[in-house]
Amino acid sequence: MAAPVLFIAAALLVALGLFHSFLGERYIIRRLLRRDDLPKLFGGQEFTAGTIRFAWHITTLLAFGVAAVLMLLAFDADQRAVVAAVGITCLACAVLPLVFTRGRHLSWAIFVAAGALCLVAAMIA
Question: Do 115 and 87 meet the contact criterion of CB atoms below 8 Å apart?
């Protein structure tokens, strides 16, 4: 069956996410945010820096979410579990713009709405 292949794919995505966040933060994000010429949005560079940081790390959360979906599929989970995993991933993604931009980047609202809708769909399916 395809389960071993899906396990390997999921493990690769988890590893990718970890390396992406750790190495990206260390070698790209920190250096980029030290620049003095970042655009000043919403009155300063803090919003820009927060947006860059959350946008970078959201890739990791999405990779983890896809890995979770692959694992569920490998275990022949039902549709509700897969939809719930997507919902949880969206809710986790909402945390980053809330934290890094103090909620000023409104993507958090879309992630919360999508995540909540997925969880409702998973419960009523």
Answer: yes
Give the predicted TM-score (pTM) of the model.
0.91
Reported as a single tens digit per residue, the pLDDT across 60-69 is 999 999 999 9
- CA torsion through residues 42, 45, 51, 54, sign: negative
Predicted local distance difference test score (pLDDT) of residue 1:
56
The owner of tokens 């809330």 is 98
User: What is the Cα–Cα distance from 20 to 119, expressed in whole angstroms?
Assistant: 28
C-alpha to C-alpha distance for 75 and 61, rounded to whole angstroms: 21
